[in-house]
Amino acid sequence: MKGQGTFVNSGEDSEFVVMVKGPRYRWLWLLLLLLLPLLLLLRFDKDVTFLTQDAKDGAALSDVNLDFYYVDYSLLKTNPTSFFVADTVKLNGKTLQDGKLTFTNVKYSLYSVIFHSGAQTEVKACAMCAASDTLHPLFSVLQDALPYRVNVAVDRTDLIFKVLDKDDNQPLVGADVEVIVEGNSTHLETDASGYVTVEGVGRCVDVAVNAQKEGYKGDTIVADVATILQGEHNSTLLLKPGKGVISFTVEDLESGQPVPDVVAKLIVDGATMEATTNTNGVGKGVFEDVGSKVKFEVGLSRQYYHDTLTKKYKVSEFERLKDDQKIFKMRPRRDNLVFRDVDSVSGTPIAGGANHVFVNGEDRGTLHSNRQGCFTIGNIGANDEIKIEASHAKYKDKTVTLKGSDVLSNNQRKRDVVMSPKQLFAAIPPRPRRNCGVHFSGTLLSDSKIQGHISKIYEPDIYGEYVGDGRYANNQAAFPKAVKYTFDAIAVDKGTHLKVYSKPNFKGEVLLDVSGPYLVNNVKWKDEARIKGFITKDFSPEFEANYPKSCRHWSESNMNSWDFGSVVITCDE
């Protein structure tokens, strides 16, 4: 029975039960189930509005560049055909005068609403010296009627300063560095490489930096952050040796040439101190940490020269002398003879030549030529025979045998050791081909650049070069820029093989024998904040594909010492 009615049951009537059945709709549910995949393909759009405001006072900010990323989830993508697709979409624009930016007709699917309504998006904003944090609001809450607020604050960066000895450009450890930013002062201490790092400095402020170290005169940098970031020369403080440091030069009394390898002893109040030093290749010697009030003398001695004792000085008086007043003269013995290493092509002196000397078979040791190419041999007689075995990294070995009667003449040319340059290249190195090259750098290498500290792979600059396949007998000629700025990193292309030798002409120890892709940075900088995470960090997509984490390494030894070796680069055909 269908419909509605009234039923009366009297006492005389028999009892009965009436069941009323309604219509059934199972067919409709089945239809919806069949149509559901098609419904999930439906696409919609909506407007998404953002409001950028000052994080400090909430004021609206105009002309702010805003990046908005969201994931467009789809059940089916037809070109090419694929299911359960997640495409990341990037939208970009600048806010208007009221601080708002609306992205219209932002596309999404019904499938995305039902199954991914809580998906996170990514929002970033920046304007001149200000920027927002990276925000991750849910896609479902973004709408035109209720703009999403993005707080923008001062953009900050890390600054790295280096403190060096002004005389020899060596890093100073433990120097006190005071950094003043917007009236706030911070004291830092330089690490083993002479660096300090100042974190979180606003990009649009001026910075004052002062470095001090006992025994040195301080140095100061006052500049804006943009200038400091332009290069290491704008972030390097040079401290000149001051109190407690005795720096001097030793010269030949007759020739005026510097005298290397002089043994100098510090004598205080008539007693020789434990302090002893040797002059370097340009005749310079240094005593450090000398009490500023003491009086001192310097005792000098060297083979073929008379022992010399300087006059007495007070440290404070000595510091005030001019450089030419800090030169100590040594008188050569009369029986000394000056020999000279000379380039056979240019006729110029060769500095740093190693000359192993024998007189009548007696080993006189190895004498190094100074910057004028000169070295001295004493006690030569007319009947003596002098044998000199000369060597230098850039020249072919040369052995000469001379008679005493010839070298005792006034003709200097008879005492010249003429050396021929090594032929390093027959032509300019070939231009690198794709997947056939090696990037050598005098700075560290990574996927992004920090001026003066880290170079970007594939972007040769003043600190390095990109070298193609070939045999390179001398690193200084193959990649002179990298050598000039202290060799610190190598990036080897996929399909390229690199072999590095410790000595020129493919001799000595094999320092590296690898096939690309292979990225190696100098282990010397392993603990430096700016690079220590390069093995574990995520590179930008291009570089992550070419140099994944498994292909990044620290060197097994200090790469600065690889300058004088040789390399072989071969490529897959």
Task: Give me the secondary-structure topology.
Layout: H1 26-40, E1 43-54, E2 65-78, E3 81-94, E4 100-109, H2 110-116, E5 122-127, E6 130-132, E7 148-154, E8 156-165, E9 176-181, E10 184-189, E11 195-202, E12 206-212, E13 216-217, E14 219-224, H3 225-228, E15 236-241, E16 246-252, E17 263-268, E18 271-278, E19 284-287, E20 295-301, E21 308-309, E22 313-314, H4 315-319, E23 327-330, E24 337-343, E25 354-359, E26 362-368, E27 374-377, E28 385-392, E29 395-403, H5 404-407, E30 416-419, E31 438-441, E32 444-446, E33 454-456, E34 464-467, E35 470-472, H6 475-478, H7 480-484, E36 489-492, E37 496-503, E38 507-515, E39 518-521, H8 541-546, E40 552-554, E41 566-571
Parallel strand pairs: 1-7, 8-15, 16-23, 24-30, 32-33, 39-40
Antiparallel strand pairs: 1-4, 2-3, 2-5, 5-6, 6-7, 8-11, 9-10, 9-12, 12-14, 13-15, 16-19, 17-18, 17-20, 20-21, 20-22, 24-27, 25-26, 25-28, 28-29, 31-34, 31-36, 35-41, 36-39, 37-38, 37-41
